[in-house]
Write a structure and sequence with these properties.
CATH architecture of the largest domain: Orthogonal Bundle
CATH topology of the largest domain: Arc Repressor Mutant, subunit A
Order of helices and strands: HHHHHHH
Number of helices: 7
Number of strands: 0
CATH class of the largest domain: Mainly Alpha
Distance between the termini: 34 Å
Helix content: over 70%
Structural class: mainly alpha
């Protein structure tokens, strides 16, 4: 099992970089490079989780936030709460929301997650509503 110091996040990051590097020759320029990179990253994460599912350990939102963000306490608390709420979404909705937060267009998100643009828009709307409802509880 991976330790709680989030060293497995570094392993996952390294696997993503290796897969991007190894896949560069197969990039067909049918989409933006950033879209392709997101797709490689998502596929690598899914494979990583499946590979290590026996270990029954997934990154907690707090661990990810600690690795990703460094700021004052109130901003950090707000970010933790936001990611806690996002973590409660289903896998696809979570991916859609995170890609939207990264300012990807609906077309890019649709291509990355393999859904239609209309489906992405609908899922994003419902996910935002769920996040608002959950935050008011």
């Amino acid at each position: 099992m991976y330790s709680t110091d989030a060293s497995y996040l570094k392993d996952l990051y390294q696997e993503i970089l290796i897969n991007i590097w190894n896949g560069l020759d197969s990039f067909r320029s049918e989409s933006k490079v950033s879209t392709w990179i997101y797709r490689v990253a998502i596929n690598t994460c899914v494979a990583f989780i499946r590979k290590h599912s026996k270990e029954q350990h997934a990154a907690s939102v707090d661990e990810i936030a600690d690795v990703t963000f460094a700021d004052d306490g109130s901003r950090m608390a707000n970010l933790r709460e936001m990611y806690r709420l996002i973590n409660g979404l289903g896998k696809i909705d979570k991916a859609i929301v995170l890609l939207w937060l990264d300012e990807h267009s609906y077309d890019e998100i649709a291509e990355i997650v393999g859904l239609s643009k209309a489906n992405v828009a609908s899922r994003l709307y419902r996910a935002k509503q769920k996040l608002v409802d959950d935050s008011n509880r």
